[in-house]
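Lecture notes, unit on protein representations.

Consider one protein chain, 296 amino acids long.
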Amino acid sequence: MVMDITFEKVGYTYQKGTPFESRALYDIDFDIKDGSYTALVGHTGSGKSTILRHLNALNKPTEGKVIIGDREIVSTTNNKNLKSIRKKVGIVFQFPESQLFEETIAKDIAFGPKNFGATEEEGVEIAKRMLPLVGLDETYMERSPFDLSGGQMRRVAIAGVLAMEPEVLVLDEPTAGLDPKGRKEMMDMFYQLYKEHGMTIVLVTHQMEDVASYANHVIILEQGTVVKEGPPREIFQNEPWLESKQLDVPATVSFASRLEERIGLRLGDIPLTTDELADQLVAHLASSSIEGGDAK
């Protein structure tokens, strides 16, 4: 089944009908296509966390509707019928390692599937299959998750989400608290799930380098609604606009812009990654060398 996620005129109000009601979302329209890698970005208070909770019906819209695969979620949808959605759309919340609790890694990974009816033996087999997906091996099965490093604990927690075999994986600031090396390893791991296993990825982040390096679609939120969306190269072309929305520009984009301003160097398409920037500079130098030789 195709697992597109569509928001149609979605609004959400916390504590609706009370003196404390607060409107978090309004007039939200967007599509997350099956097989895409979508980034949701926006500064604090833009609505990212509230949207995240709508992606697997943890929250139901107070206005409009959310369509997840073939299921339509509105304010009156019965909560009892939403369990299957939460299996298909897995959410990795910030610092997921804080949710580990079992005595062994195998039991922690198998906890979700067993809640959905898997036997003890099936749970063990699922745990064995999940560990390589997060860069660990079977030797970790009987270890305590609390004997691991912080990065390894996070991988175990992610394996527990993957054990439910979701079709969509939602990542809430998944590299928070990691050093640069750990951050790259974690993001490369998610990209491998996207490329090699066909998983739809939704990345909620403020790390624009990660957006530029991995996503193929970007949705920008401000004050509870969508203000822009499109492919990363299109989004990052307008630096002043991004800065007006309190959003950073990837370092490579900023560097290429400075080269253009200071020495008039035009590189064509804006480079989104350091590899793209290096390739463009090499091509420019090679072109300049050939032109110089012709001039002689």
